[in-house]
Amino acid sequence: MSKNRNNRGNTKGSPNRGENPTQTEKCRFSIPTVQAVRIEPSSEDKEKYSNEENYRRKQLDLSVYLNWITAIAAAISLLALAALFISLWFTRIATQAATKQATTAQREFESSQRPWLATQYAHDALLVIAPDSISLQMAVSMSNVGHSIAQNVIFRPILMENWRGNLTDCETWSENVEKQAAIVSGGIVIFPNQVLGPFTRAAFLTKDKIADAFRNPDRPGKVTFKVVGCVAYTSSIDDKPHHTKFVFNVMPKGSSIQNDFDLAPTSQNIPVDLEMDINQITAN
């Protein structure tokens, strides 16, 4: 019987050689089904999950609060920085205003208390015409109309030909005289309300500077003169240099108008009067 079973299992013509199982074989070797079983969490697990969920929610809320706090702190910092900038800006404006006010007050004090020198009057003068030069011997008195002492006082006159009508070089000349007063020590001192003088000085002019006057066919050898004077001094308050510049018209003695002086003679002395031109007075 065993042989017959083996023969049946090894029959070549059998259609069921493991390739196409029969329905019976399918039923015999079918895949078992798995039935899902639902496992309900225990109360402890539910409580654990609930606690974790609450913890995560609290952490999220806390992070939101912290973000808001950080944003508010940043905004407050910006506002504080802006307030500081505005405060510094107003402080700077107030400081500038105070400095300007102090400077103005100092200038007003210096202007009210500083010395002011003025030429009070000019004494008799003599115009000396020499072969190569012309000089004017003059004497002036000065008064201090300020409220402090004028020190290192110097007086420098210069003779100019009036027919040119040009005083542009006088400003530079006055500045040079002022610089001389700044370096003088132990010079003349004039107290407030004091009149001092006369100071005798000579103003020179070489004839080569007025050579054109001799070649003028209409007025050969005739020139009208003016004297530009500068009184330089320093203040006893702050040692700052100052100067007063004035202009005198040179007129023949006893004349009320300027006349031409005849320079043709080689040598002569001409008494003259000096009239101050009030429109040409400057001071600093």
Which secondary structure elements does this structure contain, and how are they paired or packed?
Layout: H1 2-9, H2 23-28, H3 43-113, E1 117-122, E2 125-129, E3 133-144, E4 150-161, H4 168-183, E5 188-190, E6 195-206, H5 211-214, E7 222-223, E8 225-235, E9 241-252, E10 261-262, E11 268-276, E12 282-283
Antiparallel strand pairs: 1-3, 2-3, 2-11, 3-6, 4-5, 4-8, 7-10, 8-9, 9-11, 9-12
What structural class do helix, strand and pairing data support?
alpha+beta
Stretches with pLDDT under 50, minimum 5 residues: 1-14
The ordered string of helix (H) and strand (E) elements is HHHEEEEHEEHEEEEEE
Distance between the termini: 154 Å
| Tally of DSSP β-strands | 12
Backbone CA Rg? 58 Å
Largest sheet: 10 strands, antiparallel
Overall domain count: 2
Integer average pLDDT? 75
Tally of helical runs: 5
Q: What gross morphology would you assign?
A: rod-shaped
Q: Give the % helix.
A: 25-40%
Work out the strand percent: 25-35%
Biased composition (Polar residues): 1-24
Region (Disordered): 1-32
Transmembrane segments: 65-90
Keywords: Membrane, Transmembrane, Transmembrane helix
